[in-house]
Protein backbone atom coordinates (compact mmCIF):
# COMPACT_ATOMS: atom_id res chain seq x y z
CA UNK A 1 0.00 0.00 0.00
CA UNK A 2 2.82 2.42 0.87
CA UNK A 3 4.49 1.71 -2.46
CA UNK A 4 1.30 2.57 -4.39
CA UNK A 5 0.88 5.77 -2.39
CA UNK A 6 4.50 6.79 -3.11
CA UNK A 7 4.08 6.12 -6.83
CA UNK A 8 0.83 8.12 -6.92
CA UNK A 9 2.49 11.03 -5.12
CA UNK A 10 5.47 11.02 -7.50
CA UNK A 11 3.17 11.01 -10.52
CA UNK A 12 1.05 13.82 -9.10
CA UNK A 13 4.05 16.04 -8.43
CA UNK A 14 6.05 15.16 -11.56
CA UNK A 15 4.15 17.53 -13.85
CA UNK A 16 3.63 20.43 -11.50
CA UNK A 17 5.04 23.89 -12.04
CA UNK A 18 6.00 24.87 -8.50
CA UNK A 19 8.95 27.26 -8.52
CA UNK A 20 11.48 27.42 -5.71
CA UNK A 21 10.97 30.11 -3.09
CA UNK A 22 13.42 32.42 -4.87
CA UNK A 23 11.20 32.34 -7.98
CA UNK A 24 7.76 32.42 -6.34
CA UNK A 25 5.48 35.04 -7.84
CA UNK A 26 7.43 35.31 -11.09
CA UNK A 27 5.22 34.34 -14.05
CA UNK A 28 6.76 31.59 -16.18
CA UNK A 29 7.63 31.73 -19.85
CA UNK A 30 6.48 28.44 -21.40
CA UNK A 31 9.08 26.96 -23.77
CA UNK A 32 9.05 23.74 -25.78
CA UNK A 33 12.36 22.26 -26.92
CA UNK A 34 12.33 19.05 -28.99
CA UNK A 35 9.12 17.85 -27.34
CA UNK A 36 10.15 18.77 -23.78
CA UNK A 37 8.01 21.47 -22.12
CA UNK A 38 9.57 23.85 -19.60
CA UNK A 39 8.40 26.72 -17.40
CA UNK A 40 11.27 29.22 -17.35
CA UNK A 41 11.52 31.98 -14.76
CA UNK A 42 14.18 34.67 -14.66
CA UNK A 43 15.16 36.65 -11.59
CA UNK A 44 17.90 39.17 -12.32
CA UNK A 45 20.97 37.31 -13.52
CA UNK A 46 19.66 33.83 -12.77
CA UNK A 47 16.99 31.56 -14.20
CA UNK A 48 15.15 28.36 -13.39
CA UNK A 49 13.64 25.85 -15.82
CA UNK A 50 11.08 23.31 -14.59
CA UNK A 51 10.34 20.42 -16.95
CA UNK A 52 6.57 19.99 -17.18
CA UNK A 53 6.23 16.69 -19.02
CA UNK A 54 7.27 13.20 -17.97
CA UNK A 55 10.03 11.69 -20.04
CA UNK A 56 12.71 9.07 -19.69
CA UNK A 57 15.18 9.97 -22.40
CA UNK A 58 18.70 11.29 -22.41
CA UNK A 59 19.57 14.90 -23.08
CA UNK A 60 17.10 16.58 -20.75
CA UNK A 61 19.75 18.91 -19.31
CA UNK A 62 20.77 20.01 -22.81
CA UNK A 63 17.13 20.83 -23.56
CA UNK A 64 16.83 22.69 -20.23
CA UNK A 65 19.90 24.72 -21.23
CA UNK A 66 18.25 25.71 -24.51
CA UNK A 67 14.94 26.41 -22.73
CA UNK A 68 16.60 28.80 -20.28
CA UNK A 69 18.34 30.70 -23.06
CA UNK A 70 15.15 30.81 -25.17
CA UNK A 71 12.82 31.75 -22.31
CA UNK A 72 15.10 34.33 -20.70
CA UNK A 73 16.59 35.87 -23.85
CA UNK A 74 20.00 35.63 -22.19
CA UNK A 75 23.09 33.46 -22.57
CA UNK A 76 23.98 30.98 -19.85
CA UNK A 77 27.33 31.69 -18.25
CA UNK A 78 29.79 28.84 -18.82
CA UNK A 79 29.72 26.09 -16.19
CA UNK A 80 26.76 27.49 -14.25
CA UNK A 81 23.97 25.12 -15.36
CA UNK A 82 23.09 22.90 -12.43
CA UNK A 83 20.19 20.83 -11.17
CA UNK A 84 18.64 17.64 -12.41
CA UNK A 85 16.41 16.58 -15.32
CA UNK A 86 13.32 17.99 -13.55
CA UNK A 87 14.59 21.42 -12.39
CA UNK A 88 17.62 23.26 -13.73
CA UNK A 89 19.20 26.56 -12.68
CA UNK A 90 21.76 28.77 -14.40
CA UNK A 91 23.46 32.14 -14.10
CA UNK A 92 22.95 34.44 -17.06
CA UNK A 93 24.66 37.07 -19.15
CA UNK A 94 21.95 39.31 -20.59
CA UNK A 95 22.13 41.90 -23.37
CA UNK A 96 22.16 45.45 -22.07
CA UNK A 97 22.90 44.39 -18.50
From TrEMBL:
Taxonomy, superkingdom: Bacteria
PROSITE patterns reported for this sequence: PROKAR_LIPOPROTEIN
Record-given protein name: Lipoprotein
